[in-house]
Write a structure and sequence with these properties.
Layout lengths: L5 H11 L16 E3 L9 E3 L22 H20 L4 E4 L6 H12 L2 E4 H9 L4 H7 L2 H15 L5 E4 L8 H7 L3 E6 L2 H11 L14 H16 L8 E4 H7 L10 H18 L1 H7 L5 H8 L1
Parallel strand pairs: 3-5, 3-6, 4-5, 6-7
Antiparallel strand pairs: 1-2
Helix pairs in contact: 1-4, 1-6, 2-11, 3-11, 4-6, 5-6, 6-7, 8-9, 12-13
Bound molecules: adenosine-5'-triphosphate, (3R,4S,5R)-3,4,5-trihydroxycyclohex-1-ENE-1-carboxylic acid (SKM) and magnesium ion.
Length: 303
């Protein structure tokens, strides 16, 4: 059963962010967004007042030196991709799912910023709703089931909103009802190899993650064995997401042998790219059945 009382707290908080329901304009780090020319899908949505982004030049040597502007290229690529995706997203929310430490918060914040969406972390919303400072404490004082009920209530409340990027809790995928809520928007699974997850988690410690916390033992080994157990229990639950972003695939495309070489921006760009492909592929279905889709989505079909 889902917990009550979360809805009101959440509504109040989200209202403060001005996520609004205005069509065609919202304040964001990249300005107000407006569909200027639906016929030109690639540039149809652009930050108001911003200049069109010039096509990116391929990396090339100049005078024997490598181009020094890799990070600028990456930032431009991210911005250009977000402008394209905004048109297709049409205000729908993005839910990031994945194991603990998969980068949902890190990548989600980048995506929300560049899309001009608001960012929410469902674990933090549960803490607020329950009035406790950490998920670890909620597990300890109440129970995992109590946490899961509140998590479902938070996701239910978020599902009626628009223009959000939501970093979900790592276990949100296990309850079918949560998928009902997340399917109102687009879901993205950040698929990260377990050893990379364990390395990340060992670096920051397990105290904030009650399902991984162990009184003793080598942090990497403990995290790895607990994560392996959870992965097995959860089976294909993450694969319910609309889009899978595999860090191994990105690394291999970029010629890296290790996913730790990927920046969160690389992962955000790939996520946006996959979202765009998914929406284009499913436009007809979405326009027919998606309660969050605005009329522009239907117009895409006629272009
Ligand atoms: N691409 C990356 N490369 C290396 N480290 C990363 C990357 N993305 C995130 N991290 C680091 O990994 C840790 C976990 O990231 P983050 O908190 O974003 O994951 P999460 O999926 O939100 O985790 P949780 O489910 O516990 O909330 C953080 O310390 C973060 O800085
Ligand atoms: O994977 C999980 O089950 C969890 C992940 C975290 O985000 C928290 O939601 C909580 O610690 C449980
Ligand atoms: Mg997080």
């Amino acid at each position: 059963m889902e917990a009550g009382g979360v809805g009101l707290a959440l509504q109040t908080r989200v209202a403060g962010f001005g996520t609004g329901r205005r069509r065609g304009g919202l304040q964001s780090p990249i300005g107000s967004l407006r569909v200027t020319d639906p016929a030109g899908a690639a540039v149809a949505v652009r930050a108001r007042g911003s200049k069109p982004v010039a096509p990116l030049r391929a990396k090339k040597s100049s005078g024997g030196h490598e181009n020094l502007h890799n990070s600028v290229d990456e930032a431009l690529l991210l911005k250009r991709k977000s402008e394209e995706v905004l048109f297709y997203l049409n205000g729908r929310c993005i839910y990031l799912v994945g194991m603990m430490g998969s980068g949902k918060s890190t990548v989600g914040k980048i995506m929300s910023e560049v899309l001009g969406y608001s960012f929410f972390d469902s674990d933090k919303l549960v803490e607020q709703a329950v009035g406790m400072p950490s998920v670890a404490q909620i597990f300890k004082v109440h129970s995992e089931a109590f946490f899961r009920d509140n998590e479902s209530s938070v996701l239910r409340d978020l599902s009626s909103m628009r223009r959000l990027v939501v970093a979900t809790g790592g276990g949100a995928v296990i309850r079918p009802v949560n998928w009902k809520y997340m399917k109102k928007g687009l879901s993205v699974w950040l698929d990260v190899p377990l050893d990379a997850l364990a390395r990340r988690i060992a670096k920051v410690g397990t105290a904030s993650r009650p399902l991984l916390d162990q009184p003793s033992g080598d942090p990497y080994t403990m995290a790895f064995s607990k994560l392996s157990m959870l992965a097995e229990q959860r089976g294909d639950a993450y694969a319910n997401a609309d889009v899978r972003v595999s860090l191994e695939e990105i690394a291999s495309k970029q010629g890296h042998d290790d996913v730790s070489k990927l920046t969160p921006t690389d992962i955000a760009i790939e996520s946006l790219h996959k979202i765009e492909s998914f929406v284009i592929e499913h436009t007809a279905d979405n326009a027919a059945g998606d309660s969050q889709a605005e009329p522009q989505v239907q117009r895409i079909q006629t272009l």
